[in-house]
Batch of 2 targets.
Target 1
Amino acid sequence: MHSRRKFIKQSIVGAASLSAVATAISCDNNSSAAKGQGKKPIVISTWDFGVAANKAAWEVLENNGRALDAVEQGVKVAEADLENQTVGKGGFPDRDGHVTLDACIMDELGNCGSVAALENIAHPISVARLVMERTPHVMLVGQGAKQFALENGFQEENLLTEASEKAWKEWLKEKNYKPVMNIENKAFATEKLPGNKYNHDTIGMLALDANGNLSGACTTSGMAFKMHGRVGDSPIIGAGLYVDNEIGGATSTGVGEEVIRTVGSFLVVELMRQGYSPEDACKEAVMRIVKKKPDIAKDIQVGFLALNKNGEYGSYALQDGFTFAVCDNEKQDLIEKGKYHYNPKKS
Ligand code: SD4
């Protein structure tokens, strides 16, 4: 790894109706939002906490490891982070007080595995990988997923931390279920939403390894205080994650119901197959949501992140505030503010 001197670079990119302010925080003085694209290996992941996750993935990638191992190791960092209250252990519970986790993983051969509404198991992504590798199925849910995890050596543990229990008890006082936009981006949340209630967040990660193979992983505790049994887009192959080793991969974050309705990540990959750049493909997927549900689109966040077979990446979100982290040979701590977003309130 090269020197970790940090700098902040801001560039204004003019783009007619779109807000186009790119902010990059990087260890590389020469990097910019565009430079370094097209390199391999590379790993990208959603939100600021992607930086720490990318580091773990990078350790695998820089040692010529497989993208599949990289994404599993990477997102496990977010799953283990108790301060992260929307992924893995420490996640917010549903409205009945259960922490239920969703995750999926997909490799370069089109193999995939998934778990949904999994309770008491700290690393759902690793269970999802075992579903892929050790069963004839793609998806296990609820009790069945837990039984499978226990049979395969995972330990049962309490995932509800004191902090998340406290937040849930606070929420019970009003029982107001309204997703807050960009709650994952702490700077944005602190500035724009003082006293906010964290209520949604996911890590989606895509990696291209030195051999040119792609894999992806996605893991979350889903919407905070959701109905018991609710499953979002994150564990659903094609919605929260999709990888086609000939073309590229995509993942999503935000209000999962809208992503499921449009089969968002599959759509992004198929658009890249048609020649769209990663960013344009993400934009088209976001606009599909806007076209179908303009009223809902005003009040929610959905962000897509995509990486193509050439190592080029891009994102597009419904609202301002989406960020993602990038790590390759040139930049290891990069956080990019999603450059482009649709802002329904302004149109
Ligand atoms: C879900 N998509 O469960 C997830 C939540 C999320 O940023 O991504 N929040 O719907």
Note: The chain has one domain: 42-346.
Target 2
Amino acid sequence: MTDPAVATIHAATRLRGELHLPGDKSVSHRALILAGLASGESRILGSGDGADIRSTAEIVRALGARVERLAGDGSTVDYRVESPGVDSLTEPEGVLDCGNSGTSLRLMTGVLAGLPMTATLDGDDSLRRRPVARIIEPLRSMGADLHGRQDDSLPPVVVVGHFPLRAIEHTTTVPSAQVKSAILLAGLRAEGRTTVREAVATRDHTERMLRSRGVPVERTDDADGSVAWTVQGGMAVQALTERVPGDVSAAAFWLVVGAIHPDAELTIRGVGLNPTRRAIVDLLRSMGADIEERPDPAPQGATDEGVGEPMADLIVRSSTLRAIELTPTDVAAAIDEIPILCLAATAAVGTTVIRGAGELRHKESDRIDGTAAGLRALGAQIEIDGDDLSITGGRRLRGAATDGLDDHRLVMTFAVAGLVASGETSVGRPQAASISYPRFFDDLERVRA
Ligand code: S3P
């Protein structure tokens, strides 16, 4: 990139190569947070190294754990965390800066709710527009004192923690792994059993990672399809060494561009394929994408004591795509991949309909309007009807100016679109890619065979 305000991408005649992804962002946040709660030494191998993960690392450090960055390769980094344990964490001196990271803000609010101290969590302009009533209300009912701006709806969030908290049973009003995780983390500091019920199962990394650290988490599946998670308060989180899988949400950009480019074959190494995260792979396949999955024969055991989330190498080849219809449940399962799925839809025969995507309006940007604006600039046909999107594919995109709106997933969507669009595409505010994928633009140049 020459001009930092704009990235310019030219159409690629061929795409080839092998990609090594950043460590999964959701798993990396949780590994750092749980390491901060566990007494002793934890090691996190292959963590993501984007700005969001650095925010969480700084927050864990500000609470009194020693957080050391070990070897890194630009995409991933290893951490060593030495914590005095949850009961010996100390009140932070300053405001805890979550930067752009909703996961840092929501999960750490859950942790702080059960610590006897006062802390303020804040972030950048984008984070200050993201909803927090969804965590403030349940955590307050557990006995913590929390305040947000504008009648408790927006950050900064001030948390006056309380120990012990009261256990609750809570049904989430929107499918959100961040809300579920915040309550389960607070539940560790409650007397009794805390249950979170969700109508649609969201990513279950917190639950898996608690179990692997010695904390039982029960799952109950109800007849109506809802799932309830229960944690017993007072259980200690144990320190361990864990390897973080490659981020499937980062893989999604290569899967889509590999499928829609007419001359592509890309190999993506070590992709985490947790069943609650792999929806994008299956949705693309149902559109006709040629994605081969070679499971990692030894995802766990040899190098770590972690949960060993399933991992595979994925090979994607040029494909002919057809439109699909996504339900609100599909949207929840692929919540971070909807912008890049919209790009896939621009190349598919027919009209792809995405229903119930309202939560996308509350991400790092309004991703419904932002995705539509960028792809329309490239010549795509997209209609918005409330929280539903319809994309009619089949026309080749043509290079144009797009705006990433300081949102990492929009930046990367429009940048890979530039590899298939004719001529030259520009992406405004491209630095946001480093929120989750610092080496993204290097990888983009490398696959242009
Ligand atoms: C995340 C959950 C999702 C997702 C975010 C990461 C997590 O948010 O969009 O990027 O790590 O728990 P919600 O659970 O609020 O939808």
Note: The mean pLDDT is 96.
